[in-house]
TrEMBL record:
Residues 1-21 are annotated as: Disordered. The chain crosses the membrane at residues 48-72, 78-99, 246-268, 274-293, 325-350, 362-384, 390-414. Gene3D superfamilies: MFS general substrate transporter like domains. It comes from the Bacteria. InterPro entries: MFS_trans_sf. The keyword Transmembrane helix applies. This is MFS transporter. Keywords: Membrane, Transmembrane, Transmembrane helix.
Length: 418
């Protein structure tokens, strides 16, 4: 604000603006960018914490594939590698809501930093054990006891909810951007992990992921001006008790089965070095759709998004019946376009149903349900890939899971309740 000048009037000295106001613009208002994302990152501190959040989230897509590569290389057993990775997912599903509850009670920086340090030290210990070919039980023990990675995406969404309170359009854009960022991290993470492990040594992927995560968390939590204050607790119970929350988590569980089954079935169908890039097209479609979805002013209803997902998930099935790899790649790209709008809408419902003092815990419960569905869908997809009566049979599973999610949403009316 320019300092006002004194000017003489018949009544004596008075304040007068130094600069003449624009004739068509109210005094004190400046032109806002038309692009909603440019307006979003005009918020003070938004760029810095977003960079930290993305850097911290990228390793989430790296840890799993890095663990598989290094364990399989040292122990010559993909079964052991898969079991260790599954242990990490299961332990994370148990500890995630507990860590999120601590974040809600004591703040992001006070909890996320020590939780990340503990998790990174555990990953480094796992690298040492694998390198020395320690007994297999030690791998499971270390993996289970150090699964304390905080939900960085949930903390970032909580910051946007705090900064954009009272502006639902901007919050919708922020949610869409966060979902697109998730898709980008899960698309690039496995590729980066495989590249680093192959270029250097099997443990290199885990080491790089550990450094990136800890550096990102320190950058993210270091932006204290954007950290939401600890809200007074209005409920001592779990967010699961909030009306409509349990049915919504059931929808997330079925939605996760869509993603898990599609990934395994597509990998089994392609079965070659191009499987990863082909599968990455689904995440690319979701990322692009998320950014486009963030530009609209209104959020679609959850059952509308799930209906679109059910229809679009039939595209890989139709493409697989042709036997063409290019057709399957196009089908996966189209199918992915329903992912981000569905997740943005679902997470928006979680934020509405969860008390403000339990927001991180509520979003972590949603992610936990989603990951549980991914695990169940991956198991079902693996069974279908081994026992399919015809090559495209497995692609029935994602469509069936999407239809189940739509039926649960319609039967419970969870979107209308929120």
């Amino acid at each position: 604000m320019p300092r006002p000048d004194l000017t003489l009037t018949p009544a004596g000295p008075a304040l007068a603006p130094r600069y003449r106001a624009h004739p068509t613009r109210p005094v004190g208002l400046t032109a806002q960018p038309r692009n909603p994302y440019l307006r979003l990152f005009a918020v003070p501190g938004a760029r810095a914490f977003t960079v930290g959040s993305m850097v911290a989230r990228l390793p989430v897509g790296m840890f799993g594939i890095s663990a598989v590569i290094m364990v399989a290389a040292r122990y010559d057993s993909y079964a052991l590698a898969g079991a260790v990775t599954a242990t990490a997912l299961g332990a994370g599903a148990l500890t995630g809501p507990w860590i999120a509850r601590l974040i809600d009670r004591y703040g992001q920086a006070r909890v996320a930093v020590p939780a990340s340090v503990h998790a990174v030290l555990g990953r480094l210990l796992l690298v040492l054990l694998v390198h020395e070919r320690a007994p297999a039980w030690t791998l499971f023990l270390v993996t289970a006891l150090t699964a304390t990675l905080p939900n960085t995406g949930g903390m970032s969404r909580a910051r946007w909810a705090h900064l954009l309170r009272g502006d639902p359009d901007a919050l919708h854009t922020a949610s869409a951007f966060e979902q697109a960022g998730d898709e980008l991290c899960f698309m690039l993470g496995p590729v980066l992990a495989a590249l680093v492990c192959s270029a250097f040594f099997p443990e290199a992927g885990t080491l790089v992921a550990a450094v990136l995560h800890l550096g990102g968390i320190l950058l993210f939590t270091g932006r204290r001006a954007t950290e939401p204050p600890v809200a007074p607790r209005t409920s001592d119970g779990s967010p699961l008790r909030a009306p409509g929350m349990a049915p919504l988590l059931a929808v997330f569980l079925a939605t996760g089965a869509v993603f898990g089954s599609l990934e395994v079935v597509a990998l089994a169908f392609v079965d070659g070095p191009v499987a990863g890039p082909v599968l990455a097209l689904q995440a690319a479609g979701s990322c692009a759709a998320g950014l486009l979805y963030g530009r609209v002013r209104r959020t679609a209803r959850l059952h509308t998004c799930l209906a679109a997902m059910t229809v679009l998930m039939s595209m890989p099935l139709l493409a697989a019946t042709t036997g063409s790899l290019l057709a399957l790649a196009a089908g996966l790209l189209v199918a992915g376009m329903a992912t981000a709008p569905t997740m943005v809408t679902g997470m928006a419902l979680v934020q509405r149903l969860t008390p403000e003092s339990q927001l991180n815990e509520g979003m972590t419960l949603a992610v936990t349900a989603l990951l549980a569905g991914v695990s169940a869908g991956a198991a079902a997809g693996g069974w279908a890939a081994d026992h399919s009566p015809f090559p495209a049979f497995g692609f029935l599973l994602p469509t069936a899971a999407a239809l189940l999610a739509l039926a649960l949403c319609a039967a419970t009316g969870v979107g209308r309740r929120a």
